[in-house]
Fold this sequence. Notes:
mainly alpha, 2 helices, 74% helix, elongated
Amino acid sequence: MTEKNPNADIAEMTYEQARDELTKVLNQLEQGSVTLDQSMALWQRGEVLAQKCEEWLTGARAKLDEVLKKKD
């Protein structure tokens, strides 16, 4: 039996989509109106979303550094 990865969609997200989804996840966690199992799943999704955002920001930083290096 194969289990579908509930976070597979994150790989295809843009930075803005991942950021907005992370905000939604954080809001749900802060409200505290979900079960413990749901909280754990949301926490894990949030971790993956945060990592995706960090990858996007790191890539953007590297591109800026490259442009600035060429400028000098």
